[in-house]
Amino acid sequence: GAGVSQSPRYKVAKRGQDVALRCDPISGHVSLFWYQQALGQGPEFLTYFQNEAQLDKSGLPSDRFFAERPEGSVSTLKIQRTQQEDSAVYLCASSLWDRGVGTEAFFGQGTRLTVV
Amino acid sequence: GQQLNQSPQSMFIQEGEDVSMNCTSSSIFNTWLWYKQDPGEGPVLLIALYKAGELTSNGRLTAQFGITRKDSFLNISASIPSDVGIYFCAGRGGSQGNLIFGKGTKLSVKP
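YS: structure for the whole thing
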């Protein structure tokens, strides 16, 4: 597609429910990032993939958060046993490479997760 | 998690005014970026800076990479209504591409 696509756009989950958020990066983009954006805050880094390899998961807030990118394209962020503090917008971004001039990441529209 | 110090938090503008915002960090960065985010959308890149002291323009926007590598500013000249939104600075200093963002500067139109 033309841009980074995320689905669903909105998700309401009951506390304790598991959720899965999907990201379709721009075709051919090697790097994929997940960020969490709480209301009124800037995005915060969660995890980074280079192709199918998860090279950095230092930002995942707990072991309830899990991300995968099995074929180096589509990625899924899974949150188990959701809690109210997980309510946020989850942003996905992809780039041709991980750094350097002209390789900055493009962001999707995000998935707004509300845990009730 | 770590966030950069971005100021002001919010400001009101009148059409035609110049706007200035800045960002500081306790860490050194190799790259400074400025993004704009509209409601319900993801951040959109406005300007990227890769060298200390670099001054870069994109239309009415001008940004600079501080010589200490710990700060950056963004200026918007002759603001127009569509400039309204939230502006974020972001820095990158590590070996990988993940960014550290500021808390944002919200631009609104003066009533």
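YS: worth flagging: The radius of gyration of chain A is 13 Å.
IM: good catch. Also Chain A has a mean pLDDT of 93.
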